[in-house]
Write a structure and sequence with these properties.
Length: 212
């Protein structure tokens, strides 16, 4: 005889676990079903001794309770099976998550190593570039120093040449000055000689006129 379980009973069985009813056998548990079976057997024996409507009703009621307990026990077994499957699925899920996590960790470690290698390479390149720029600057400064020295030497040579040319010009001027002085002296002597000749001629003429 089938018996439908009320929602309250189903809810109670889904929300409680076997053996948690303060020391009393939980509904749907194997021990509860065994107690109901013993009670049903006892009621049948009593009904056989005292067959009447009251004992028949009692047997009917205990039989219904037994069927309900068996159904509840079956529900508990199914729930336990579902729980076991859910636990297994959850375990498989966490194992998969663990494997994926380990794979991700390995990948991240690999990425970190690659980034470290790349960073070390870039730092080395930067260091080499800075050293090259420093050497290039030193070379440029030295080249500028060489150019400056060459310019200084050239300017000194030009100054020396100018001074030498100035000395030559000064000597030429001194020579020209002496020559000019000699020329002026010669002209003065020539003029003085000419004046003396004129005076002499005048004296001679005067003397000749006196004799006449």
């Amino acid at each position: 005889m089938a018996l439908n379980l009320d929602n309250k009973t189903l809810t109670q069985r889904l929300l409680t676990k076997e053996g948690q009813s303060l020391g009393v056998s939980a509904r749907g548990s194997l021990s509860k079903s065994a107690l109901k079976l013993a009670e049903f057997k006892k009621s049948i024996e009593e009904a056989m001794k005292y067959p009447d409507k009251e004992t028949s009703t009692k047997v009917q009621k205990i039989g219904n309770d037994l069927i309900r307990e068996i159904q509840l026990h079956d529900l508990e077994m199914k729930k336990m099976a579902l729980g076991a499957e859910a636990a297994k699925a959850e375990m498989n899920y966490y194992e998969t998550i663990g494997e994926e996590t380990q794979t991700s960790i390995t990948k991240v470690k690999g990425d970190i190593e690659k980034l470290k290698t790349k960073l070390e390479h870039e730092m080395k390149v930067r260091k080499n570039r800075l050293e090259y720029e420093a050497l290039a600057k030193m070379a440029s400064d030295r080249e500028s120093s060489k150019i400056t020295k060459r310019k200084l030497v050239k300017e000194r040579e030009d100054i020396t040449n100018i001074e030498e040319e100035s000395r030559k010009i000064q000597k030429r001027l001194e020579v020209k000055g002496r020559q000019f002085h000699l020329l002026m002296q010669s002209l003065s002597d020539l003029k003085r000689g000419t004046d003396e000749d004129s005076l002499r001629e005048s004296i001679v003429k005067s003397a000749e006129n006196g004799d006449s």
